[in-house]
Specification:
This protein is mainly β and 223 residues long. It has four helices and 17 strands. Strand 16 and strand 17 form a beta hairpin. It is globular and about 45 Å long. It starts with a strand and ends with a strand.
């Protein structure tokens, strides 16, 4: 994972599902009473210049753009006021989801880790400091072939960024390099071979990648 002019070793990737009401509605899901947590392995993270093959057993890969938070040092059971001290930085990420694989697993009452955790399932931008960033008012978006598909703002989260980190620290010991994905707004949809995907926090970070028959070619930029 790239951080300014250096690289940061990735730990676990903690993902939050159903954190935007409109996204819950578009997938016909129920609103959870507490954050819905699932994990991606560190092998899901990909950076600039990487390629990843979408598994051959899926024909329906979806994009889900998300704000990413990265932990700075080991912590457990944080108080809300302590959370900013443990944030290394912020980025933009895309939670790639094999929707058909996930659907089949759900129908059988089985885990759907493969649908979210395959190699390269989490393209992520450079990580930048959170100074001067209002975590409760972050615009972010995703475009496919120049057409906007997702547009969100962190103020519409059900659980805000700090609350999510606090909750994650209650469930797990957090270590430096752990990534927390904070949920996706409405507009998730399929991406196909040849598509060019752009995601950004305007004026902060950008992530670009394209799909081809060999996999995903990634270019990561900082504005």
């Amino acid at each position: 994972m790239r951080r300014q002019n250096d690289y940061e070793k990735v730990g676990k990737v903690i993902c939050v599902g159903r954190n935007y009401t409109e996204h819950i509605k578009e997938l016909g899901n129920e609103t959870p009473k507490q954050p819905l947590i699932f994990l991606k392995p560190d092998s899901a993270i990909v950076n600039s210049g990487s390629k990843v093959t979408i598994p051959s057993f899926s024909e329906n890969c979806h994009h889900e753009v998300e704000i990413a938070l990265v932990i700075s040092h080991k912590c457990k059971s944080l108080e809300l006021a302590e959370v900013p001290e443990y944030l290394l930085g912020i980025g933009i990420a895309v939670d790639l989801t094999l929707r058909d694989v996930q659907k089949r697993a759900k129908e059988r009452g089985l885990p759907w880790a493969i649908a979210k955790g395959f190699d390269g399932a989490c393209p992520i931008s450079e990580i930048v400091p959170i100074e001067n960033i209002d975590l409760e008012n972050i615009d972010f978006n995703l475009k496919v072939n120049g057409e906007e598909r997702q547009n969100g703002n962190s103020k519409f989260m059900i659980w805000d960024c700090l609350a999510l980190v606090k909750y994650a620290s209650e469930m797990f010991t957090l270590n430096r390099g752990d990534v927390i994905l904070t949920g996706t707004p409405k507009g998730v949809s399929q991406i196909l071979k040849g598509d060019f995907v752009q995601a950004e926090i305007p004026g902060v970070v950008e992530l670009d990648f394209s799909l081809d028959s060999q996999g995903i070619n990634l270019l990561v930029h900082k504005v």
